[in-house]
Write a structure and sequence with these properties.
This protein is mostly helical and 350 residues long. It contains 15 helices and no strands.
Length: 350
């Protein structure tokens, strides 16, 4: 079950580039956290959840990925521990969860673009749909070009997604107001308190650490790579979750103003229109990366569950005997991490 050395082509940087979008992906959309709770409650919850939830998850997955570096990660770990029936349930619900998440990101990207460009005016009534379809197929083409191309593309997307936030966090240091961070007013006029939104968002925010093991079978020197990657990713995730919100609430303590895209408004107020447009570009890059990383889990999950069962059949399927060039391309992994059929099938579902 363990991947061969020739299958291990992801180093530390490649793992970081893809895993960044599992555990963080930038700050875009996090404005809604201030709708859930005032900063005096939100910030301690963010830090506490990182210590009690994210850190143990990161350590556990890091240990498993080092000791059992299998393709699909947790899919095969569950099967070895609990058997095939439980593994089938785990595979199905993991796939359902991530394919659903994958379907959300194109719509979010279109929503951000629509803040600046009237998609319906320029592309017609189906402008948003076309925007979503284009995003999905760009990601699909990049993945079909091979893992090396996908890693380089993910690295570029992560840099573009991070840069505006880093500029905002740096510029905003002079605006920091600790008095605004201790506000615990949960009255309706102050924005109220939405416990279900807070809990669900915190779980979603840090649950990405469970997905890092998905690529365990493709990582070179897992012990070293996972150790370095997790040492970097845990504090980066907490920093990107906490500091932009701290600066934002210092600039505008009225929680009723916070909605999707409000970071761009504050960025424009802080440094000018150039940073506001930078946030738009960063958001687009982030949603591309988030979609791609979610689909990685979908693809590796199905591949890790289905492939071992195909290998158990007494007679190999005809495509492996060369009877169909198209089917051979679809069913045989050739530098794409998984067989292209998994990439294309998940893109069609999204």
């Amino acid at each position: 079950m363990e991947g061969e050395d020739t299958h291990r082509h992801l180093g530390v940087l490649g793992l970081l580039a893809i895993a960044f979008f599992w555990v963080c992906g930038g700050v875009y959309g996090n404005e809604l956290l201030l709708e859930a709770a005032p900063p005096g409650i939100l910030f301690p919850v963010l830090i506490g959840a990182a210590l009690l939830y994210a850190c143990p998850a990161a350590v556990m997955i890091g240990e498993l990925a080092t000791g059992f570096p299998y393709d699909g990660g947790i899919i095969q770990w569950v099967e070895e521990t609990c058997g095939r029936r439980v593994s089938a349930q785990n595979t199905y619900w993991t796939w359902v969860g991530f394919i659903t998440a994958s379907a959300v990101y194109p719509g979010l990207m279109a929503e951000y673009i629509d803040l600046y460009i009237d998609l319906e005016k320029h592309l017609g009534t189906s402008g948003v749909n076309w925007c979503c379809v284009i995003q999905v197929w760009i990601v699909t083409v990049v993945k079909l070009a091979g893992t090396d191309v996908f890693v380089n593309w993910s690295t570029a997307m992560s840099v573009v997604a991070v840069l505006p936030s880093v500029i905002f966090m740096t510029y905003g240091c002079k605006e920091a107001d600790p008095h605004a961070w201790v506000n615990v007013d949960t009255s309706p006029d102050a924005g109220g308190m939405n416990q279900s939104l807070l809990i669900s968002w915190i779980i979603w925010l840090y649950s990405g650490f469970f997905d890092i093991g998905t690529l365990a079978g493709e990582v070179k020197d897992p012990a070293r790579s996972y150790k370095i990657a997790l040492i970097i990713l845990v504090p980066v995730t907490v920093l990107f979750a906490l500091w932009p919100l701290a600066i934002s609430v210092s600039m505008d303590p009225d929680r009723n103003n916070y909605d999707n895209g409000y970071f761009e408004t504050l960025a424009t107020r802080l440094a000018g229109k150039w940073l506001g447009y930078g946030y738009l570009i960063g958001a687009i890059a982030s949603f591309f990366g988030l979609l791609a990383s979610s689909l990685v889990v979908c693809e590796r999950t199905l591949s890790a569950f289905i492939n071992p069962r195909l290998e158990e059949t007494d007679e190999p399927p005809k495509p492996y005997n060369g009877s169909s060039r198209v089917l051979r391309y679809l069913l045989i992994e050739n530098g794409t991490g998984v067989a292209p059929v998994y990439i294309i099938a998940n893109a069609l579902v999204v």
